[in-house]
Amino acid sequence: MARKPVAPGHADEPTRNTTFDLAHMSVRDVNRLLHEAEHGDFVIKNPRGLHAIVAGLDGELNVSIDGHVGYYCAGMNKRASVTIGGNAGTGLAENMMSGRVHVKGDASQSAGATGCGGLLIIDGNASARCGISIRGLNIVVKGSVGHMSAFMAQAGTLVVLGDAGDALGDSIYEARLYLRGKVKSLGADCVMKQMHDEHKVSLRQLLDASGIGGTVDVSEFRRYGSARKLYNFHISNLGSY
Amino acid sequence: MCGIVGLFLKHAKLEPELGHLTAAMVSELRDRGPDSAGFAVYGNATPGITKLCAVARQGPVAWPHIADRLSKATNAPVAVAVIDNHALVKTEGDGDAARTWLIDNVPEATVLSHGQSIEIFKGVGDPEAVAKRLDLAGRKGTHAIAHTRMATESAVTLAGSHPFSTGEDTCLVHNGSLANHNRLRDFLRRHGERFQTENDSEVAAAYLTWRRREGDTLEAALEHSLEDLDGFYTFVVGTRDGFAVLRDPIACKPAVMAETADWVAFGTEFRALVPLPGIANARIWEPEPATVYVWNRGS
Closest chain A residue to B271 measured between Cα atoms? Predict the structure, then answer.
């Protein structure tokens, strides 16, 4: 659907500091208004674990959600900055393209799944399959992640300040994993790698962007990535594709 | 899919509200299981009395007549109350014997539960309508477990609805599917378990009954099930004074828990927990895979 042009000051234009109350509005109506907005600051109240809140945003928006959200919150997010005051259900910021999604609580399974770009910050823990199949998204988890995190991750970064569960990075392609705590087990083809300066620099940038650069030391992290034995792409074959 | 809710009260204050709160939680998850629904409520125990819940498979059942026959066969006083298509039978005799007699002699009904405290009711159709028809909201008690079902492993029937109960005051609800239920059912039959359906979740309930008869605590029985049950599952289990949660090691099936000083609650999704008093300040977490969680009243 084409974005509806809105004249500044128009009565229908969602303006700065607009508050939407999901106790009185449907998710569909709130999402539609946000899809139509080009910019502005918005607050969403009473999310009550509902699904697909602020999915599909594509504007220079700042959205703050007061409470816990259900499945697929901020899915496909592009350009917008979304802050969730509570916990998030399955598939937080799945297929995110750009922008920033910040959860102050925990995230359930498959957070950031297949994300292409942007920054996903999780202040608490993320459960199973965090960052599954990411394709460029950067994820910073201040707590721990569950089993099968970064499964088949292709590009992007998963930073974990806490611990990782079983089978971290199983069948990983070219994503980078930085872990400060312990890993229960590594998945197939995932190996520990040396931290070079370039890795410390990129890790530092992500920690800075997450607001914790000043308190976390990059030398405490270990880097994991693909041993490149499980998939058959070779750069010399690029011309064949 | 499927939706599960469970509410375990830590003290008597909220007991009059148990059914009302559970019904509100079920209502939130009706879209996860539109096929059928059922609930177990624990409470109203009278020493020396075993309650048996049964439901007609089809058509009317002559419950007063059946109660007379059960009384004569077991040589014990029996009373019966008819609630919609269910019967609540109360006997002063042996509960296991009464269950066996009903299964053997009343093929027109399915026995849903037996015990001092447990009552199970279930129905096919929209969960909210089932809960209303069977007056879940009006029920009082110490803990309740409810299920909204989207059938996968067996047909949409009353018999296939959860909760399942094969042992005294014990019930189980299941989100998922078991791969080895046929062989396990045969094994459990050989060890004396009685089955009334072809449902995989009934096998899990019977497995717990068997383990507990072998001397396991609820916690130990669930630990053993991690070794013996193959498949996907999130289980919520009730006993007379206990409440337990277990997810399989892969943890595909969603689960959220919350706890306050007054209650512990389970929901397949967070939105099921929203109606609970004090949820804004509850401790909320996702249960770990392959980890047994048990609460007991008074502990």
Answer: A49
Query: Looking at the annotation, which residues of B are catalytic?
Result: 2
Separation CA A187–CA A141 (nearest Å): 19
Nearest-Cα residue of chain B relative to residue A128: B251
- From the list A124, A115, A189, the residue with the least C-alpha distance to A158 is A115
Distances (CA, A) of B264 to A158, A162, A167, B19, B258: 33, 27, 31, 15, 6
Mean pLDDT of A36-50: 95
Across the interface, of B254, B272, B285, the residue whose CB is closest to A90 is B254
Single-letter code of the amino acid located at B118: I
Asked if ipTM goes beyond 0.90, one says no
> Hey, are the CB atoms on A48 and B284 less than 8 Å from each other?
no
Pairwise CA distance, residues A4 & A36, whole Å: 6
- Across the interface, whether the CB atoms of B284 and A105 are under 8 A apart is answered yes
* B177 contacts B203 by C-beta, under 8 angstroms: no
What's the predicted TM-score (pTM) here?
0.91
Domain architecture of chain B: domains with CATH: 3-45+123-296 (3.60.20.10), 52-116 (3.30.70)
